[in-house]
Amino acid sequence: AGGKARRARDKDIERQIAMGNFDVIAGQTAVVYQPDTSSWNPHRNGVQEQAREVHVGGLSYNASSGETDMTLKPNKTQRRKHQINSLAFEAAERELELMEKKGNSMKTKAQTQAKYGW
User: Domain extents for the chain?
Assistant: First the structure.
């Protein structure tokens, strides 16, 4: 019985609002003050993107100490010999580059609508 009464009350409130009588919800609404998010521009507003670096860990043999060391970037010899950690590093760099290109080419909904006149 409580559900029917609530639905009837909600429909009555909707009818009152549709007629322009906003006094029925005077004490029930909250006013939220915030900046307009559609005008946010990270470059104009001073938000700087951090330069992203790729870190792919790989083991390399250190001839002077006779031990294996963990390296995050491949050295010249590893790149020249196409060792697996250098290939993984290059793949991660390419993936990051493609993600950045995709992010730059994506348009907002408003830009697309303006282009096609929807």
Answer: 1-33, 52-106
